[in-house]
Amino acid sequence: MRGPARLLAFIALAGGALAAPPPVSAGGPARANGVPATLGLPAMEVPADNPVTPAKVALGRKLFVDRRLSPNGTMSCAMCHVPEQGFTAHELATSVGIEGRSVRRNAPTVLNVAWQRRLFHDGREVSLEDQVWGPLLAVNEMGNPSIGYVLERIAALPDYRGLFEAAFAGRGPSSARVGAALASYQRTLVAADSRFDRWRYGGDTSALNAVEKAGFEFFTGKGRCAACHRVGERDALFTDHAFHNTGVGWRRTFGAPERTRVELAPGVHAELDRRTVESFSEPPAKDVGRYEITLDPKDRWAYKTPSLRNVALTAPYMHDGSLRTLEAVVEFYDRGGVDNPDRSALVAPLGLTATERAALVAFLRTLTGRSVDALAADARGAATAAGR
Ligand code: HEC
Ligand code: HEC
User: Fold this and answer.
1) Which of 36, 184, 202, 364 is the most buried if burial means most Cβ atoms within 10 Å?
2) How far is the CA of 317 from the centre of ligand 2 (A)?
3) Atom 41, ligand 2: residue with shortest CA distance
4) Which atom of ligand 2 is nearest to 225's Cα?
5) Are 371 and 193 in contact (CB under 8 A)?
6) Which residues pair with 273 in a beta bridge?
7) Which residues lie below 8 Å from residue 373, measured CB to CB, with a gap of 6+?
8) Beta bridge partner(s), residue 210
9) Does the model's pTM come out above 0.70?
């Protein structure tokens, strides 16, 4: 199935998955208002060998929030992609995995991840089906020793009995089917139909106020944001699916500030001298971005252009979580990012006024999709159903 027919089929399925309260059994009721949350998004590409079905979505949702999928029962996908926090984690600039182990990058949101052509900040993975084994097996994320270990655990959990079989024509857990179920669930995390979409694609001229409309003008005009965060005539993904050096990664490697903000305990911060910090902590993990995948020098410190949909809900920002607010991001671009030999030619000082910067931020706050609360509630519904 290609094009609109396939999209409609998807919407019918996602409609079931988005309903609140969520279905405990597979299938699920129809969306109360029957309106899909896709206004502003192009048709979704779904692999022909893994069509989205209600049974797979329900299973994938259960797996996503299940902490028993880590050896000590503490980590699930949802611990870093927290449903109530825009499917990312606000408190942490870079993720923390099993037993407090550091991850070198910021967890991106998985909202609208179905439209990402390449996954991870460096684009090293291309399929949602395959991607799941990255976090499941990483020693500093979910920390499982092997694929077989995870499959044995699932097979031993009574509440999974029959669920794989129901979703996959009688076949039980396998590495591919764990991936297929988690991918199917993530394909239902669709959050568009924002105020921006209703204004630009839905013909509602009053959906944005004058400041927000001006912000959009700066976004596509003087701010040059849309050169990378693309906006089309019929839909917008706010990404060019490419990798660019804005200077964030370069600064992390070479330009660490003399004083750094250190988290001593959750919510307790102190400003410490860099040398003091280095004396008792591991040096920051090396990160050269896309270069690590292509080994092409022009890709040094280049990272994937993230979609800006739902960006008001997904702080902190950038691959290292180094910018905490949208105001800080806009100031960063206004300064021309961080100058370095490989900086993208598309990033340069902008000379925005305070009013223009504020309008840009106001515009970015209009990109929150209508379904985000329902999706968060839906994910937790699965948690309740699984008894945790
Ligand atoms: C310890 C925290 C942590 C856990 C647990 C975790 N993730 Fe992630 N996730 C991350 C981080 C950090 C990245 C970015 C890593 C990178 O770019 O190298 C990421 C990236 C992703 C991406 C790519 C998104 C994009 O836009 O490129 C997907 C999809 C994803 N995770 C899904 C999952 C799933 C499914 C699980 C559970 C099987 C999971 N994650 C578990 C932290 C985590
Ligand atoms: C050269 C291409 C390019 C241009 C121009 C550009 N961006 Fe970006 N943007 C990126 C890339 C690449 C990242 C990710 C950087 C990283 O992870 O270190 C990013 C990250 C962001 C983020 C953080 C999103 C997140 O989830 O972490 C925001 C917000 C953002 N850009 C807004 C803007 C705005 C506003 C403008 C215009 C003032 C702009 N961008 C111009 C490429 C671009």
Assistant:
1) 184
2) 9
3) 225
4) 37
5) yes
6) 259
7) none
8) none
9) yes
Q: Which ligand 1 atom is at minimum distance from the Cα of 136? A: 38
CA distance 335 to 357: 12
For ligand 2, say whether the CB of 116 is within 6 Å of any of its atoms: no
Pick the residue whose CA is nearest to atom 33 on ligand 1.
77
Three-class SS string for 249-268? HHHHHHCCCCEEEEEEECCE
Contacts made by residues 164-171, CB under 8 angstroms, sequence distance 24+: 164/59, 166/26, 166/55, 166/59, 167/26, 167/53, 167/55, 167/56, 167/58, 167/59, 168/56
Structural tokens at position 33: 């208002």
Superfamily of domain 3-191+370-385: Cytochrome c-like domain (1.10.760.10)
Residue 321 CA, closest ligand 2 atom number:
27
Q: Probe ligand 1: pick from 63, 65, 90, 95, max atoms within 8 Å of CB?
A: 95
Per CATH, the homologous superfamily of domain 210-255+289-364 is Cytochrome c-like domain (1.10.760.10)
- How far away, in angstroms, is 131 Cα from ligand 2 center? 23
Range list for CATH 1.10.760.10 in the chain: 3-191+370-385, 210-255+289-364
Question: Per-residue confidence of the chain (388 residues) as pLDDT tens digits?
Answer: 333 334 334 444 444 444 333 332 222 333 334 345 799 999 999 999 999 999 999 999 999 999 999 999 999 999 999 999 999 999 899 999 998 998 999 999 999 999 999 999 999 999 999 999 999 999 999 999 999 999 999 999 999 999 999 999 999 999 999 999 999 999 999 999 999 999 999 999 999 999 999 999 999 999 999 999 999 999 999 999 999 999 999 988 887 555 566 667 777 777 766 666 666 666 667 899 999 999 999 999 999 999 999 999 999 999 999 999 999 999 999 999 999 999 999 999 999 999 999 999 999 999 999 999 999 999 988 655 554 4
168 in contact with ligand 2, CB cutoff 6 A: no
DSSP state, 92? -
pLDDT digit string (tens) for 323-364? 999 999 999 999 999 999 999 999 999 999 999 999 999 999
